[in-house]
Amino acid sequence: MWIKLKALSSILSHLLLGIALVDANLRCYDTEETTPNGCYTCLNASIQDLIASCPNRKEALSWGGDPPCLARYANRPFFGILELQPTDSGYNTADITSNLTQFDTIWESLMDRVVSKASSGSSTKYATGEADFTAFQTIHALMQCTPDLSHKDCDSCLRQSVSYYESCCRGKQGGYVQKPNCWFRWDLCPFYTRNASTAASLSPPPSPASPPPLSVNSTRKKGDGGSHSSHTIAIIIVPIVILVAVLIILAVAVLLKRIKKTKRDDQNNKTHGEALQFDFNAVRVATDNFSDANLLGRGGFGSVYKGQLEDGRKVAVKRLSESSGQGEQEFKNEVMLLAKLQHRNLVRLLGLSFEQKERILIYEFLPNSSLDNFIFDPVKCLILNWEKRYKIIEGIAKGLLYLHEDSQYRIIHRDLKPANILLDEEMNPKISDFGMAKLFTVDQTRADTSKVVGTYGYMAPEYAWHGQYSVKSDVYSFGVLVLEIISGKKISSFSNQEVGDSLLTHAWRNWREGTPLEVVDPILRDGSRSEIMRCIHLGLLCVQDNIDSRPTMASVVLMLSSYSISLPVPSRPAFSMHSTMETETKSQSSSLSNQSKRENIQVSVNEASISELDPR
């Protein structure tokens, strides 16, 4: 049940002083606990939270708690526009303890059914559904979109919410995901009213009925009229004065709170920056004065060393080249932004250190080296069976999705390749070398650049030839990665064959001729054939020559997690740079991993990673 409160919307407009309010939306979700009074209370609390927590913001939103509700305003119109960020989620801490595979099958089928029902149903975009898991357990699901969304946008919003939940909370006994335009929740216990109306309108509670007028003598004295007029004026003026006084007090309170919050934020940022900063002498000791014995690799942005801190922690230390061109405070601010990027499929940046012209980055240390040392090694490749490779593909996709859409900044990696995918103890993938361009004086204000930095073969053609890059450039690189992981062959392994042939065209030709398994690494033949075929299909979709035909990473994650989505037929891939020109140097990556078993590591300065960061 969506409930729109026009009165509270009006209150919100008056209280947001100094904001040119264009659109405001106040809505409640339908659950078993949703009542008009409860909704009114939730939204009123959310409005107060917006005023207190987001002073002087041009747009903001606040999700209420119980019953769930949403208060949102902006100085721009957003009616009928699909917006997927920000995202809020939560889950039941209890786990599904048995028959998880069977549960996943039933759960995914139910979610798919409820998504279709909600998006294609009535104008309220609301649907519920149930499915029996066991004789005593039933899965309950509820999904809602804002009624102004189109059928297609509602379907997309809900499916991405389901995919988001699967990536963060799979195996739990309940949870929710909410976005600005849709809300999704499921549980093993009923939490909604089965027969509730899908839409309702609510106004503030009506005033009590006026008592019947008293019987009085109709004859009045002549002077009574003036007394009556004065009384009426007083009744009108007093509430206005009180209202103005309340608004003034509220404005002063908001202003004082804003000043206090600004001071607190400045103090927190200062404390956070101090926590990230490592003593340069301690870093020097940890790496044995940047000894060659601890050198892990060299790249365009500097050298990487293995180190051990005083507390025993092993770290990877990246000593940046002197071409950074940034002052201490600017460098510190940029690193603080990068350190806020936290995802299980990203290499974690622990901190920084600097002294005069020295600029140091400290990362978590990953002992299993990089992906290229496994899939292209005739012995180590045996460690990665199909289940592990599929998990690696999924992890890379989720990490890229975070960089593109879910992080505070939109980051385009521009040098995604196996050497920049590091593996932890359990062979989980972590993307490295993201965001490096912000630490150097590289023009990041345009989507066109005359300085192309990356690795031939993994670069999208529009970037390699014209310097044009976008999130679809990373999608292309991801497609190359997927085909390399499946085939066990490097993109460059076809460079000496006939002109125009490459791993991409080889895979596409076999796909078109009905022999896609010819592309697969022989050691993977015992893996799930349907998963392998789907990943080849997905890889070919990512490397299509037409930029618009390539899927987004959100679509890729959804395609990997839901087999109910049919994939379009891929068109011919773009020419691989390895099949159309010769490179002067072989591209390898400066790795943050332990490669101590290799005595000499040669890394070309041509393979440095560059990433783009745009504030959202």
Automatic annotation (TrEMBL):
- Annotated Pfam families: Pkinase, Stress-antifung
Example of a GO cellular component annotation carried by this entry: plasma membrane
Q: Which domain of life is it from?
A: Eukaryota
Instruction: List the SMART domains.
Output: S_TKc
Q: Where is this region: Disordered?
A: 200-225, 577-616
Where does the Gnk2-homologous domain start and stop, copy by copy? 1-78, 84-191
Sites binding ATP sit at K318
Which positions make up the signal peptide? 1-24
Q: Might you name a Gene Ontology BP term for this protein?
A: response to abscisic acid
Compositionally biased region (Pro residues): 203-214
**Alphabetized UniProt keyword annotations:** ATP-binding, Glycoprotein, Kinase, Membrane, Nucleotide-binding, Phosphoprotein, Receptor, Repeat, Serine/threonine-protein kinase, Signal, Transferase, Transmembrane, Transmembrane helix
> One GO molecular-function annotation for this sequence?
ATP binding
Protein localization: Membrane
- Provide the transmembrane region boundaries: 233-256
Domain annotation Protein kinase: ranges = 290-575
Q: Could you tell me the membrane topology recorded for this protein?
A: Single-pass membrane protein
Q: What is this protein called?
A: Receptor-like protein kinase At4g00960
Top-level taxonomy = Eukaryota, Viridiplantae, Streptophyta, Embryophyta, Tracheophyta
